Amino acid sequence: MSGDSFGALTDVEKIILDSVKATGPISFSTFMQLSLGHPTYGYYMKPEHAVFGTQGDFITSPEISQMFGELVALWMVKQWMDTNIKLPFRVVELGPGRGTLMDDMLRVLKQLPVTSRKLKSIHLVENSATMRALQEDKLRKTSQEENYEIVWHDAIEELEHEEDVFTMLVAHEFFDVLPVNVIERTQQGWNEVLIAPSNDPSIKYIMPSSESDLRSGSPPPLRPTSSRWTRVLSPTPTASATLLGLASPRFSSLPVGTRIEVSRASMNQARNIGKLIGTKGGGCALVVDYGADKSFGDSLRAFKEHKIVDIFCRPGECDITANVDFALLKESMADLGMFDISTHGPISQRDFLTRMGIQIRAAGLARSASSPERRRAIEDGANRLVDSLGMGEQYKVLGVVAKSSGEGHDVGDVWPFTTIR
């Protein structure tokens, strides 16, 4: 398999092929881990990949307008003021990208008199040296001017649980790139959908079922989507698939033929967020991502140069994402009541930003714009963020706050997640 219509094997594909030869078909979780996070060949690990912006493979909300980060910061300040304004606070971001979102948030925090001297530290959870360099370059000026301490971590578990500090945490487009396993309910139990070379006669596994697609009206049944790789179904239930099938009580009633994407990594990260927010110092968090309050069966996709491409296209050279099951995040954060937190939403990004006053902020920026071109850019950015046919509805926002409060805050009524009747 030196090459075919998809070109020569990528370095990641060579590793996958060796793994299949040694131990058989691999899981989608392993495929994502290798494609995105391999220390040498992973998509996020290679300096030559322009990940974000017009030259990259996708554009995120913070890259479109400063207003996104500003309103995120204002929401967090409100939660801190309602909980215990006497405490200092720290800001944590999971997967900070180029540092644009954090930079916009810090601009708000340093300008508000009530927060300017209360910010204790900034924590960025990022395991890519390439991305860390971009973040440091973006945030260097602000951190030096304000004497902010910036600390990088490889994982959220490295953050200390400080009882005398309020934690503000944001995870924007973080969960959608965490590895998922794809499992399918059969008469035997939960079998796993795996990946194998499509032209290897030694692979005897069958193709996954298409019954769930026919019932739900979702995309066409799974079939070989490239000349190099294909999906196959494990002949019997695997231990991993069985455990993931028990991850939520919602899964127990799913009929035979149902296929779902489940992320063990997302469950672990959500629990860690719950632990941080639920400590004595309290805190709040926003999770912003593609997805909905349900599981998905066929949302995995790859991006290259702002276009969706075959999921198996050039592993290691494309971004791979999956829709986020926000219901599973909430279940994991609650973790049977272990953590003293409450979750709110998810609501659409359009509703979140509109209720937080993006149009008012946009009008203010437009009035002070230095040119008509700048004014139009401000208005276009705001409109794009809340576009009901695009990002405004595609992105969902989940709020997390500590239940306990020093100032009598009613956690059952957290704006802008309050239902408007």
- Biggest beta sheet attributes: 8 strands, mixed
The helix fraction, in percent, is 25-40%
> Structural class, judged by helices and strands?
alpha/beta
Oligomer: single chain
Number of helices: 14
Protein model, in words:
The chain is of the alpha/beta class and 421 residues long. Helix content is 35%, strand content 21%. The chain has 14 helices and 18 strands. The strands form four sheets. Strands 4, 5, 6, 7, 12, 16, 17 and 18 form an eight-stranded mixed beta sheet that branches. Strands 3, 8, 9, 10 and 11 form a five-stranded antiparallel beta sheet that branches. It has a three-stranded antiparallel beta sheet with strand order 14-13-15. A hairpin with a 2-residue loop joins strand 13 and strand 14. About 4% of the residues have low confidence.
Summary, kept brief:
The protein has helices spanning 11-23, 28-37, 61-64, 66-84, 100-111, 129-146, 211-216, 239-245, 264-277, 326-334, 349-355, 358-367, 372-385, 391-394, and strands spanning 3-4, 7-8, 26-27, 89-94, 119-125, 150-153, 166-172, 181-185, 190-197, 229-233, 259-262, 283-292, 301-304, 307-309, 319-321, 324-325, 341-348, 395-402.
